[in-house]
Amino acid sequence: MGLNLILPLQVWMERWVLERSCRWPRARIEAHQSRSVEQLRRFVLQRSPFYRRFHRGLEQRPLADLPILTKATVMENFDDLVTDRGVRLAEVEAFLDRDGGRGLFQDRYVVLSTSGTTGRRGLFLFSGSEWINVLASISRPLYWAGVYRRPWGLPRVALIASTVPWHYSARISLTLSSRLLPQLRLDAVQPVAEMVTRLNEWQPEMLAAYPSVVLQLAEEQIAGRLHIRPGSVMTSAEVLPEETRRRVREAWGVRMFDTYGTTEYAPVAVECIQGRKHLLEDGAVIEILDDKGRAVPPGTAGDRILLSVFRRRVQPLIRYEISDMVRPLDEPCECGRHFQVIDAIEGRTEDVLLFPARLEGHAPVPVHPNVFHDVLDVFPTAGWQVVQDESGLSVYLCGPRNIREFEALRLALYRALEAQNVQVPPIKIQPVDKLERGATAKAPLVVSRLGRAAG
Q1: Residue 117 banded pLDDT, cuts 50, 70, 90
Q2: Is the peptide bond between 155 and the residue preceding it cis, with omega within 30 degrees of 0?
Q3: Are 289 and 296 spatial neighbours (Cβ–Cβ below 8 Å)?
């Protein structure tokens, strides 16, 4: 499954098969989902001791009646959940510790890991055919943006993300890297000045990076230090503020295409030429639920999504929980695709900060990250980050050094929080050279270093 000359053709053909569903009418999509879920459920009952226990007595019940599967449950029951009886969690972990995820576990499986920022890290296995499907799926955003139409001849790409080998983007990049698919891979934790030097030398035709990195590079282009002319800009993995889109248009005169994905199923949603995000429902049933586990109506933001992934057979995932906040819409898109449209990916429930209520005796008040976006996205900065800890709120600003503007910003944040009826903690504004990034080089915009209780 290492790189070979026919791999781009295999990926292109698989992507062509996947894309046939894009023009299906809604009834056909739902019929496909129903058949695929039925096949998946029969398979796991035959091959997975865990699912036989987990779904006992519910075999004839509809999908929505099955229990929710969390990452913690997956990891606690790893050996019984996987359908290859020769796979053991201890051996997978030893493989990652020894090899870092560069090779193939048991010479058969790609192993990816989540960073564990929301608890225990998750380990996920992909067979050869599943990995081809992953590569084809991740090429769909490029196709929707008009970039990837042939198996060969991709533009010169600059990919700026995590370079740890067990991370999703790094492993895909390593698999596809060749003279046929020219790319420059940079780590998002590198100093911006180093990125600028490498990008000026490489002159990418396409730029793919986290939104926080793209914003910094757009500022460098506007300032005259970066001199590239990408024909397209792709982002993923972080919340994409509208201000970042605006600065990219100002810097390069191109529009951005954003993709929403997870290690477990990527991409979950792809942005079309109309600027609408569509859930890729041909590969999974994607449920959007509130905090009580009920499906949310169109126009209402959910607190989590559940994924039932059709093509994952080595490590099946049925009603697997992701704590992302997504809002579905009930309206057609001019692009002609009939997949569910969503109008926002607003972060994770872990990004919601809790503050003591202004009125004594009341429960702690959750403050949505949009409260901070509304204030900070319009502030002239190359990036920002809000960190909550015992001392209050620290707001880190990348780039600006005009101290006189900080007090106005602090006051705007104070008023925005006050409007949420919370006890506003001390707010400290700090300029920094770069934002703090996690193990996978993402820069979370809103971070709590407190427990989930407040007050």
Answers
A1: very low
A2: no
A3: yes
| Cβ atoms 425, 432 nearer than 8 A | no
Q: Is 7-347's fold the same as 352-448's?
A: no
pLDDT at 310: 96
- Residue 261 above 50 pLDDT? yes
What's this model's pTM, rounded to 2 decimal places?
0.78
Tell me the average pLDDT across 8-36: 91
Three-state secondary structure readout of the chain: CCCCCCHHHHHHHHHHHHHHHHHCCHHHHHHHHHHHHHHHHHHHHHHCHHHHHHCCCCCCCCHHHCCCECHHHHHHCHHHHCCCCCCCHHHHHHHHHHHCCCCCECCCEEEEECCCCCCCCCEEEECHHHHHHHHHHHHHHHHHCCCCCCCCCCCCEEEEECCCCCCHHHHHHHHHCCCCCCEEEEECCCCHHHHHHHHHHHCCCEEEECHHHHHHHHHHHHHCCCCCCCCEEEEECCCCCHHHHHHHHHHHCCCEEEEECCCCCCCCEEECCCCCEEECCCCEEEEEECCCCCECCCCCCCCEEEEEECCCCCCCCCCEEECEEEEEECCCCCCCCCCCEEEEEEEEHHHCEEECECCCCCCCEEECCHHHHHHHCCCCCCCEEEEEECCEEEEEEECCCCCHHHHHHHHHHHHHHHCCCECCCCEEEEEECCCCCCCCCCCCCEEECCCCCCC
∠ CA 327-447-194, nearest 5°, is: 100
| pLDDT score recorded for residue 297 | 93
Kindly list the domain boundaries of the chain, sorted by start residue: 7-347, 352-448
pLDDT for 346: 62
Query: What pLDDT was estimated at residue 156?
Result: 85
Superfamily of domain covering 7-347:
ANL, N-terminal domain (3.40.50.12780)
- What's the fold here for domain 352-448? GMP Synthetase; Chain A, domain 3 (3.30.300)
Asked whether the beta carbons of 340 and 279 are under 8 A apart, the reply is yes
